[in-house]
Task: inverse folding
């Protein structure tokens, strides 16, 4: 399930992941809750992700709360060009703590890193906040595709491991995986 | 304008709309509206920033004036699409404002307020009506634990904008202004009943979602004249008394759940 303030790019991130396209100026505000699915190949096994996209405006939280408890994973987004969306992360985390399962897979994403000029939230700020709450963290861009597939793949790997509980395989570590595979914004300029 | 009472209010309050626009700044309201300007009908040439004149400005004004006028509601996502249609149809900011006021302030029961109680209530009411009129569909929903909000929240919040074809939406709105919010249930029940067999093919939550997306497409909804006749015959009797009782019961249940 994708959560975060209005306009941080939840729908665009999802469409980038699902269709490999960026919705430049052709997308509409998400109202209520929307649903898409995608099948991923994770280490030779098909994992079907059901992804719920939500409206970010505060009043819609009373509608979307009902879905938190069934969510296996949450992607919490802020917009690196919008300080308020970063400041609200703590409120979102409180919300998640109240309504989601206590063992929900949670990842923090700072989106829109392609807008380097307008950036107001530093990468270190995101890292610091993530560390404070023990969350895996990445910066993403739905526009360039930076780290988008990686974020969903990491979630899929974690969920697959949890459902398999295969003791023979080495344990998948979401934090390490994200740290190792995640790319900085600077490496992906063409 | 006449049947909704919008014209009468506009005549009684000359200059009020413009006073609202010149009122004190309201930063959080302004930000919330601005976030959605580029995300309202981006496919419509008249809402593009390159259009002359670009309808984003009137849209912003109408939503800002409304947010200042009805501070309990302010701005709620979904109202952008409704105001956008009103502007396209009336080509007049002030009239659009008073029509939006008629819809949000009087015709629809608290769909857009901060806790959206009216919206949640009406979705439950729809669920109850489906249970009575199409028990097999209700059983499918219950079996998969699907909440109605997942399937129909946009129907209610956007009043079928971007869900059904434009002509059909405008015909529905005519009835909405004339007869009140009950018409939304008539449309929803007709869509579901007409496609009952299709819906019942679904065997999982994603499939149910897909079926509900399918039932708002096709010739059944594009032929708006026949569709409008259907909404008055297909769902059968739907007395206001029943709706009021169900609303009362569902609201009480929601409040008890907290």
Result:
């Amino acid at each position: 399930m994708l959560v975060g303030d209005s306009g941080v790019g939840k729908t665009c991130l999802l469409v980038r992941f699902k269709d490999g396209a960026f919705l430049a100026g052709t997308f509409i505000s998400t109202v209520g809750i929307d649903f898409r699915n995608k099948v991923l190949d994770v280490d030779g096994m098909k994992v079907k992700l059901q992804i719920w996209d939500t409206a970010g405006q505060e009043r819609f939280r009373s509608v979307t709360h009902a879905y938190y408890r069934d969510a296996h994973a949450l992607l919490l987004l802020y917009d690196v060009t919008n300080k308020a969306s970063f400041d609200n992360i703590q409120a979102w985390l409180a919300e998640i703590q109240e309504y989601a399962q206590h063992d929900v897979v949670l990842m923090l994403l700072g989106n829109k890193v392609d807008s380097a000029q307008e950036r107001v939230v530093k990468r270190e700020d995101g890292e610091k906040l993530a560390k404070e709450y023990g969350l895996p963290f990445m910066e993403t861009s739905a526009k360039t595709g930076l780290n988008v597939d990686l974020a969903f793949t990491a979630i899929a790997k974690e969920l697959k491991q949890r459902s398999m509980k295969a003791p023979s395989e080495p344990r998948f570590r979401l934090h390490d995986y994200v740290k190792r595979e995640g790319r900085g914004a600077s490496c992906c300029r063409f | 304008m006449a049947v909704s009472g919008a014209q009468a209010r506009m005549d009684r309050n000359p200059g009020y709309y413009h006073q609202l626009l010149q009122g004190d700044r309201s930063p959080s309201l302004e930000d919330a509206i601005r976030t959605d300007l580029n995300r309202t009908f981006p496919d419509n040439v008249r809402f593009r920033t390159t259009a002359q004149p670009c309808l984003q400005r009137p849209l912003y004004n109408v939503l800002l004036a409304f947010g200042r006028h009805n501070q309990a509601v302010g701005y709620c996502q979904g109202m952008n699409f409704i105001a956008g249609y009103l502007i396209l149809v009336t080509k007049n900011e002030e009239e659009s404002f008073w029509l939006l006021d008629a819809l949000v302030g009087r015709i629809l029961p608290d769909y857009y307020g901060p806790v959206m109680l009216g919206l949640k209530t009406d979705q439950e009411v729809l669920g109850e009506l489906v249970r009575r009129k199409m028990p097999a569909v209700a059983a499918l929903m219950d079996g998969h634990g699907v909440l109605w909000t997942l399937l129909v929240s946009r129907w209610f919040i956007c009043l079928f904008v971007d869900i059904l074809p434009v002509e059909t939406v405008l015909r529905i709105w005519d009835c909405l202004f004339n007869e009140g919010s009950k018409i939304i249930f008539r449309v929803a029940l007709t869509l579901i009943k007409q496609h009952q067999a299709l819906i019942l093919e679904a065997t999982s939550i994603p499939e149910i979602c897909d079926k509900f997306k399918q039932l708002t497409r096709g010739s059944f909804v594009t032929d708006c004249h026949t569709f409008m006749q259907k909404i008055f015959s297909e769902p059968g009797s739907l007395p206001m008394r029943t709706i009021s009782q169900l609303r009362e019961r569902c609201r009480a249940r929601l409040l008890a759940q907290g």
Remarks:
- The radius of gyration of chain A is 16 Å.
- Chain A has a mean pLDDT of 91.
- The longest strand of chain A covers residues 33-42.
- The interface with chain B takes residues 6-7, 25-33, 35, 37, 50, 55, 57-60, 62-63, 66-67, 84 of chain A (CB under 8 Å).
